[in-house]
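Researcher: Please predict.
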Amino acid sequence: MNRNVDIIVSGHLCLDLIPRMEHVPLNSLSSPGRLFEVGAMDVSTGGAVSNTGLALHRLGVSVRLMATVGGDMLGRATVEFLNTRDPALSQLITVQPELSSSYTIVLAPQKVDRIFLHASGPNALFGIANIDFTLIAQTKIFHLGYPPLLPRLIADNGAELEELYRRAKLAGVLTSMDLTLPDPNGLSGQADWPTILRRTLPYVDVFVPSIEEILFMLRRTDYDAWRGDILAHLSADYLDALATDLLEMGPAIVGFKLGALGFYVRGNRPSRLNRLVLNRLVRLPLRAEAWANARAWHPAFQVHVVGTTGAGDSAYAGFLAALLRGMGPQDAIRWACAVGACNVEAADATSGIRTWDETQARLDAGWPTLDVCLPGL
């Protein structure tokens, strides 16, 4: 692998099948025997590896994808799709011939939030054996996405997830982790997430889940009570308290993707930031003084929403790309919101993303934000 690679994105990879069904009423889907006329099928790679990785690639970041596919037609289509973007992207994708590939059918009736029908495929077996730590040591950032959909990693209260990140830190890179919402009725929904996070986060430098994901894992009572309108219950004080709990588990930087409310981020105490920034193996231009004890929030930008698939992954890509450029908290989350906003202007997870220069021009032109507020800020 070229030693100039900036980021390796690993974890969950699948093929997304997205029928255009904006005119299908959500409540009608429960009627058996009905036929619904829908539009064209958008086909794209999906999962954190694709969504975050391709967004980074579009932003001009040198990135490689480290994941597995099956040896079937879906697996070949997954690799072929990546190769159409850049053959270098799939260099670290491994094929398991005996397995059927992972796929997700994404249902978005009348533009409500998405419903996912997901088959795990090789992701069910993804673990430390699929990570080449020699290659990890040659990059700057190691980012892994969707542990809830990687059951081997979260088994035994996250023993393998903890070991994976411990070894990644020993490789001398900045480590980053993203989540996806667990299935309440599945293995991920029954996992002991407070224990898994307490074990893993000491080895994770950057941790920015969505607010829904972290509430499910650490504030389940609030999640269940607020499911109808989580954003309406949030305040700066609430997010501060939640972020403090996470920072005490070990990360240098934590934050929350807030949908229409934008992006919120906190920095840990100076000693934790210094430990990261002064590590000679971590080759990033971060300034500890800019991030230590920082708190920042940025609202979402105004856009015409076509689809929300991969919006959080794209926002995370914008955030990581900003860190690579040495940006401070406010600029980094501004970029996270910008890239996430570009994402939702297309039906799939990646085609709405623009280049860094195109996105910068949009920001320079005075791109307006939504008229929203976070109480207390």
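Model: The longest strand covers residues 14-19.
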